[in-house]
Amino acid sequence: MNDRDKTAYKKRLIEACRESLTASARNIKLAMDEAQNSANEYGVPKDRYDSYRTQILRKRDMFGRQLQQAIDQIEILNKIDVRIVHEKVEFGSVVFTEKQKMFVATGIGKVKFEGEDIFVISPYVPVFEAMKGKKTGDDIDFRGVINKIVMVF
């Protein structure tokens, strides 16, 4: 894979992650609006022991936090410069190992991308700490399991 292929791959991967997060944010927003509408329809609490409306509003607030988290993750993706081909594992790197493929960006988790599973991880997770600064050909020792880095870009 040459540098042009690597940057094109990373660009497509970032776009797939962005689309996934945008779809998730849209669904969260719908759930948040539905909870607000439900609370509005219920009206004021019937007596001081009536906690139904409070529960609905807490649910709305929970969705609000999730929505903000998705927006923050999209902003993190927007900060990645796809033109940079990394030589070592750092923020914005795509890492292929013998056992799995990872993208160091934000903690999205497993994403289906071009028929493969890519693990989109945060630079604040332990597996990143184990491979931080490593290069192609280096071994990663994470929780007693050795994994060789096949490619970093």
Topology:
Layout: H1 3-42, H2 52-78, E1 94-97, E2 101-104, E3 109-113, E4 116-121, H3 126-131, E5 139-142, E6 145-152
Parallel strand pairs: 2-4
Antiparallel strand pairs: 1-2, 1-6, 3-4, 5-6
Helix pairs in contact: 1-2
What does this structure look like?
The protein has 153 residues and is an alpha+beta fold. It folds into 2 domains: 3-78; 94-152, no CATH class. It contains 3 helices and 6 strands, in the order H-H-E-E-E-E-H-E-E. The chain has helices spanning 3-42, 52-78, 126-131, and strands at 94-97, 101-104, 109-113, 116-121, 139-142, 145-152. The protein has a 6-stranded mixed beta sheet. Helix 1 (3-42) runs antiparallel to helix 2 (52-78). The longest helix has 40 residues, at 3-42. It starts with a helix and ends with a strand. The mean pLDDT is 94.
Number of self-contained structural domains: 2
Provide the gyration radius in Å. 20 Å
Task: Give the distance, in angstroms, between the N- and C-terminal Cα atoms.
Answer: 10 Å
Biggest sheet strand line-up: 3-4-2-1-6-5
Shape: elongated
The helix content, as a percent range, equals 40-55%
Tell me what portion of residues adopts beta-strand conformation.
Answer: 15-25%
Structural class: alpha+beta
- Count of distinct strands: 6
Give helix and strand order, one letter per element, not per position: HHEEEEHEE
Short description:
With 153 residues, this protein is an alpha+beta fold.
Features:
153 residues; 2 domains
